[in-house]
Each structure stands twice: as structure tokens, then as C-alpha cells.
Predict the 3D structure of the following.
Amino acid sequence: MFGNVVRAVVVVGLSACGLVSGPALAAAAPPPAEDRAVAARVLTYNAQGAAEFAGAVRQGVTIWNDSVANVELVPAPAGQRANIRIVADNGWPRAVTTSLGNGTVYMGRQAVNQGYDTVRIAAHELGHILGLPDRKPGPCSSLMSGSSAGVSCTNPYPDAAEKQAVERNFSGSSVPARPQRTLVFQD
């Protein structure tokens, strides 16, 4: 792909100087579709209400950004409405989705007070926003097993099946709407 870009720049540069015209310009055609990079769908988030969980949320975002290619989570620019709002409250952690990639994550203090890991909670709840259901009961190796893996489980990473599901969810140019639902960290 890099070679195609260099050829295109050289041909366009030479044609601008009048040194190349006609058939040589055909060499500057765009690369085949399989050589073009597919852009990730960008979802913005606002974690201003995350309070003491701001660091855990940043880590959860980094985990998802490092784990999948078809979607990227980025902080919302000031004044822009975010796809995902993240707030702290005294309840149990949960995600309320309005559609795939949109909703509110509640970083509930109740689970933290019981000993659950904050980074795992953040990554788990973001997983719901990315379209993943709870997988309970489940092993610690499954991020979406949530609280069923126990307080000793601190694994914040999605497993291969969870990564593949998110990649599928965001593989198309248009993402289907989903009805609003609330998903919680614990049964």
C-alpha cells in the first residue's frame, strides 16, 4: 500500500509540473479495496461525572481500544454531546444502553465497597455499551462474567470471543439501533 501512495504522490507531483500526462496518470488510481484501511467507528465518552473512578475508566477505555479495531473510544470534545456518559453513584454498577455504542455507564460504589475491581467494572460496563451481554455464571477469563467470577477476579480484559463479538457489532458502516436496556454487573 505504501508503494501505491508514493507512486500516486510522484505522478501527481510530476503531472502538476507538466512532466507527466495522459496514461501515466492512470498509475495514480487508488489502491484496491483490500489495500485500503477501514476506519474505526469513533465513539465519544464523557467521564466528567466518574469522580474517583476516572482513572479506572481511562484504563477500561485503553483496554478496549487496544483489544478491538472496528471501534475506538475517545473523550468527547468540550461542548459536544458524548455517545457514552460515565457517572459514579452509590448503587450497583450498570449500563443503560439507548442503542449500540450509546448510553450511560454507572460506576456504582456498592460493588467497589464489596471488593470488586474498579478497572474490571469499567471495562465490563463499557462492554455492554459495545453490545455485549452478561455471561453468567462465567469464569474470570470472561470479562462479561462480571461479578459471578467473584471479588478475587481482577481480569479487565475481554476474551477472544468477546473481542470478536465487538468487532462484528461494529464491522458495518451502519450500526443497527437496539432498544434501551439496563445491564448490571451483578445478578
In short: The chain has a mean pLDDT of 82. The two ends are 49 Å apart (CA to CA). The chain has five helices and six strands.
